[in-house]
Design a protein that fits this description.
With 174 residues, the chain is an all-alpha fold. It has one domain. The chain is built from six helices and no strands. Helix 1 runs antiparallel to helix 5, helix 2 runs antiparallel to helix 3 and helix 3 runs antiparallel to helix 5. The longest helix has 36 residues.
């Protein structure tokens, strides 16, 4: 799979105007592009260290983002009085647990440089596939969930119990 466009989360939200979680998705996209570049480097198969370092950096950012979603964003959305918001949050939350578990199992399985050197093509293929799944997930949130939250806040300020303020742009973390 060609990784040149991997993890460009541009589903319906313009850069710089999206919610904080969208901005985090953009930052994660940058880290993912670093992984893709490392997997494409001429010395990747013989070394692998650069790719693993990039994957570890991406994983750290993803872990923080996932915790913020799990502990802050989704619980408030699930308790929304707007049925459409609560149902979309429930749908995405169910998918999130399985996806993040699979991703972090992948990282644990490939955590050693020696393992990557033994099977660089398998590592590359599995990593690109996993990043593609995460990209699709972020695009769903950007395109399906965040617009509902913004719409709800516009219709009834305060209806999301602080979620909209969490979705407003802030300085990206990192």
């Amino acid at each position: 799979m060609d990784g040149s466009a991997l993890l460009r989360c541009d589903a319906g939200t313009s850069r710089g105007e999206g919610p904080r979680f969208f901005q985090q998705h953009e930052e994660l996209s940058g880290f993912a592009r670093a992984v893709v570049r490392a997997l494409s480097a001429p010395d990747f198969a013989s070394d692998g260290r650069t790719a693993l370092r990039a994957l570890v950096a991406f994983s750290g950012k993803l872990r923080v983002h996932a915790a913020m979603e799990r502990d802050g964003l989704y619980p408030r959305l699930l308790s929304s009085s707007d049925r459409e918001v609560a149902e979309k949050a429930r749908e995405l939350l169910l998918d999130m647990g399985e996806l993040y578990a699979a991703y972090f199992e992948h990282v644990a399985r490939w955590a050693r440089v020696a393992r990557v050197r033994e099977a660089p093509d398998a590592f590359r293929a599995e990593t690109l596939a996993m990043l593609g799944r995460l990209r699709a997930r972020m695009e769903r949130e950007n395109g399906e969930l965040y617009p509902l939250v913004r719409r709800l806040e516009e219709e009834a300020p305060g209806a999301t119990s602080g979620v909209a303020s969490e979705l407003r742009p802030r300085v990206p973390w990192g």
